[in-house]
Amino acid sequence: MFYLMSSGSIKKIGNNMKEVTIVGAGLVGSLWAVYLSKAGYKVQIFERRTDIRKAEISAGKSINLALSDRGWKALKGAGVDHLIKEIAIPMPGRIMHDMEGNLTYQPYGKEGQAINSVSRGGVNARMMDIAEQVGHAKITYNTKCLEADMKNGICYFENNETHEHFEVKSDLIFACDGAFSAIRYNSMQKLDRFNYSQTYIEDGYREILLPANADCSYKLEKNALHIWPRGRFMMIALPNEDGSFTCTLFMPFEGENSFEKLTSKEAIDNFFKTTFPDFYTMMPNIADAWEDHPLASLAITRCYPWHHGKTALMGDAAHATVPFYGQGMNAGFEDCTVMNDLMLKHNHDWDKIFEEYSRTRKPDGDGLQDLSLHNYHVMRDFVADPKFLLQKKIEARFAAKYPDKWMPLYSMTTFSDIRYSVAWKEGQRQQKIMDEVMAMEGIEAKWDSNDVEEKMNELLGENMV
Amino acid sequence: MFYLMSSGSIKKIGNNMKEVTIVGAGLVGSLWAVYLSKAGYKVQIFERRTDIRKAEISAGKSINLALSDRGWKALKGAGVDHLIKEIAIPMPGRIMHDMEGNLTYQPYGKEGQAINSVSRGGVNARMMDIAEQVGHAKITYNTKCLEADMKNGICYFENNETHEHFEVKSDLIFACDGAFSAIRYNSMQKLDRFNYSQTYIEDGYREILLPANADCSYKLEKNALHIWPRGRFMMIALPNEDGSFTCTLFMPFEGENSFEKLTSKEAIDNFFKTTFPDFYTMMPNIADAWEDHPLASLAITRCYPWHHGKTALMGDAAHATVPFYGQGMNAGFEDCTVMNDLMLKHNHDWDKIFEEYSRTRKPDGDGLQDLSLHNYHVMRDFVADPKFLLQKKIEARFAAKYPDKWMPLYSMTTFSDIRYSVAWKEGQRQQKIMDEVMAMEGIEAKWDSNDVEEKMNELLGENMV
């Protein structure tokens, strides 16, 4: 039942259908509403911000996300994947830009596999449409969640405009309210024996919009993720539907090459001219555009348990991560797949569902964090390293020949639904093997020889899991 | 300057002396008030609880703390050590109680070295007297800190009785408000790039008061810390001034031997009868006393930075720890020594003081946590292990002969002011050496031979720091 309570009075609304409160109309909250609705629940979503569909933000002008297999599987499970496919741009590989402007292409997976660029604003607006139209959810905007009585299913809200406080009591609460989740901060963190950590990495990021050509064509190859790896820092670019690219510069806040050094137009101009020359020729006004987007920080959140009483955390609220594996949205969507499977398994017995969700999904949240931090280092330090590129070539060759024996870590993470925790463990086993392979004498010359293949088969035998 | 602000009006009080707000009249806040006062600051302390000196808690009936060298040094620096010495009971060693009631004595350090049992209530009441009488601090009770404007030195309070809200603006704020610090939770944790973690261990604890004999004499040897190590769980007992002992049972919340199994009087009675038989004979009514104290949890807190603007965290607010090395209070007191040294070094330039305090004291906060977790495992798993006891004997013998070459880890932590971070690193180096020594053939027979001594000297040469 929903109860709307204000000034001490309790108003009962709705019928006998089980009623659910979702906090946050972001990607995960919107998708989960569809699953719940299809399972027979009545869903109400409360969102802190205004309706982005009515706000003056043109889609494709904000941070971009990379949708991949786990995300598609969850969208498909709710029957809404086709609605997102319309706004997604496939990127089958990455294109590396070196200091001289030379390009190197590296496919992400096998023929036909790709990750997909979607703008956060665009996909969120579409997901809200889906929540309302497919999920029959009522979304209430401008409503800030203050805290929750998690045992009794009561959420406390404040209307941002009137500052009126009100309470909503329902059968279940799902906190899909993101990295700075109010329910996690204000209610869960104060529980006895709740483990929690927030860890910022040394790097920040700043977005830059690379506009389309005058004829709306793309200034760079559309169907690729572009990357300018520069050792301790890097820039990436993902395509938007309108011909522009959303570029993101990741670098340390302090130190030799850092954001603290880029405070004058002259310094910014000079930095791009010398460090990203091919980009600079496309966008010589970079110094003027520098302040269009703020400098932002990046953090990893871990916590446990992910539920209490009638309340569960999903998505970033449970496992906000850094964007370097492109798995944040995919992991959040996968939470919906996992929760839905448990809902069916335990026939809507939510004590059992939440207990198993916390216990079994948490290791995958940790796996996600381990993978994302790992790829932060890979992208930052290794992606331009000839040894690293050779290793990936050897792995790809072996995987093509022995697909049952070897799936590269990137593919396990991106093009499969192997549990994150299992992928991470398997990836560490593979790295141990590849360390030995890369130490073989003359590996550069004989990388595609039978010798190397035999060695890998032998090492795989020794390193059985 | 202090400004008391209420209903929008600002009232200026005090003179031109720099004025300081301390949040929390616990051990660290009270001691730090003395240092500040001696340095010429005017100090005001706000405390959430009622004045424990007026409350009906007889001293010696709550959890006990072990005061050691770092604590004494800080008390001495403020010239108040003699006032605490009066209420401290020296414990030069630990007495282990086995299942048959056999006792083994193990000195903590050299002749003349001891840790000291003080009751938390007793020492806190005395520290409040000291803050008022020596530190000329005004303590305001029943005043809950809500949050702080850390840049501008404004603390927001609520009076627990009238529920009136008021603000205090001062030149500096010291958050000495403990493990659940309101300033850290509600203000610092929301800062961008503030790292934070709270991690609960699997064990909880419950206190038991072992009363004095009818003639007020002690039921156990007074000048010792008693310990009943039982592998995965343990009980300890520390003496009180009135002849009683404060005993604490540490064990897992769940599992085979755990608190969840001790829910009936019969189970409790049976557990003590079979597991702590010598204790049971002294306290056959244990089952009736079981509920006198609640079951409580234990957590480690880490965060960074420890300051922002005009505000710094000290003591448990910065580095709450588990009690297994008896260093929580000592570390908090040592924060006062460190902060005072920096105050003199930087001649009251608080930007510089706080910056260096955060940067240089944080590694010692981490060292404290590493040491405390390490001793949790030592006390739980090894303290009754003959091999461990032999290792400690070998170390003690070598340290006595070569005091310049070897100080046991326990002594570095407890009987020195070597930085925690250095002690922890040195302890790991020593353990590496002792692993090799303990692996020597026939070590049990030749532990005090020249052979072993030579081996240690040799290994020390190879493992130079």
Keywords:
globular; homodimer; alpha+beta; 7-stranded mixed beta sheet; 6-stranded mixed beta sheet
Question: What's the short story on this structure?
Answer:
2 copies of one chain form a homodimer. Chain A has 465 residues and is of the alpha+beta class. Helix content of chain A is 38%, strand content 25%.
Describe the structure.
Two copies of one chain form a homodimer. With 465 residues, chain A is α+β, with helices and mostly antiparallel strands. The first copy, chain A, has 16 helices and 21 strands. Chain A has helices at residues 27-38, 69-77, 81-85, 120-133, 182-186, 265-275, 277-282, 286-289, 316-319, 328-345, 350-382, 386-401, 409-414, 420-438, 443-446, 450-462; strands at 2-6, 9-13, 19-23, 42-46, 64-67, 89-91, 93-97, 103-107, 115-119, 138-140, 143-149, 154-159, 165-169, 172-175, 195-210, 225-229, 234-239, 245-252, 296-304, 307-308, 311-313. Chain A has a seven-stranded mixed β-sheet with strand order 8-7-16-17-18-15-19. In chain A, strand 16 (225-229) and strand 17 form a beta hairpin. In chain A, helix 1 (27-38) runs parallel beside helix 10 and helix 14 (420-438) crosses helix 16. The first copy, chain A, is globular and about 70 Å long. Mean pLDDT of chain A is 92; it is low at 3-15. At the A-B interface, strand 15 of A face strand 15 of B. Strand 15 of chain A pairs antiparallel with strand 15 of chain B.
